[in-house]
UniProtKB/TrEMBL annotation:
InterPro entries: RutC-like_sf, YjgF/YER057c/UK114
Pfam families: Ribonuc_L-PSP (PF01042)
Protein name in UniProt: Endoribonuclease L-PSP
CDD domains per record: YjgF_YER057c_UK114_family
Gene3D superfamilies found in the cross-reference section: RutC-like
């Protein structure tokens, strides 16, 4: 797989994401459902703690990628949904550092939403990965 960043502007690169990516030669595509701060047995975790919820949502995202023999390095698209954008921003560096360590800057959209499917959940991550 070959990836080429598309950035008609450069400000997004400073924030850790590309405006677009052209992917050539992919053989497998993984569409990842929304990952939240749920335990392995399906219980919501860390009620009211957006930093802990973000960490667990990232871990759950990585688990799905790993099960498909992929990693964060394979992400080409990442959607971030949160019930509190302002509360998330001080902790966003955790996600940015994980993506940076994977040497990837997937196209990313962050959306503030009124609520998520599971009461108490404040963050949800979904994405697309190719290998």
């Amino acid at each position: 797989m070959e990836r080429s960043a598309v950035n008609p502007v450069t400000w997004s690169q400073e924030m850790g994401f590309n405006q677009g990516e052209v992917v050539v030669g992919e053989t497998r595509t993984l569409y990842i459902s929304g990952q939240t701060a749920m335990s392995a047995d399906g219980r919501p975790e860390h009620d009211g703690d957006i930093a802990a919820q973000l960490a667990l949502a990232i871990a759950n995202l990585e688990a799905v990628l790993s099960e498909a023999d992929m990693s964060l390095a394979n992400l080409v698209r990442l959607n971030v949904y949160t019930t509190d954008v302002d509360a998330l921003f001080p902790h966003y560096g955790l996600l940015a550092s994980k993506l940076g360590a994977a040497r990837v800057a997937p196209t990313t959209t962050m959306l503030g939403v009124s609520r998520l499917a599971i009461p108490g959940q404040m963050i949800e991550l979904d994405g697309t990965a190719v290998a």
